[in-house]
Amino acid sequence: xxxxxxxxxxxxxxxxxxxxxxxxxxxxxxxxxxxxxxxxxxxxxxxxxxxxxxxxxxxxxxxxxxxxxxxxxxxxxxxxxxxxxxxxxxxxxxxxxxxx
Length: 100
Prior knowledge:
InterPro entries: DUF6482 (IPR045508). By secondary structure, the protein is of the alpha+beta class. 18% of the residues lie in helices and 33% in strands. The chain has one domain. The chain has helices at 3-12, 57-64, and strands at 20-25, 31-37, 40-43, 53-54, 71-77, 93-99. Strands 1, 2, 3, 4, 5 and 6 form a 6-stranded mixed beta sheet that branches.
């Protein structure tokens, strides 16, 4: 989903806020965002069809707060996390809600 589409959607859809997931990958210094659209996660892209990248959660806040989005799900993905506390193989990710 392009950022311009998201902005238009938020203006038209009477305050219905989509689920936004900001993903942090182990070993990477930036964050990527996906938006839930029709029960599918769509990567957020700019008008040049490039993935929108954030250097901090503060940048995410600066973009989304003016659009009326007050929270996101932060998904931390660590492919090196091979074991969980209960001895079962972990799914290598953790989700948490972050208020903007």
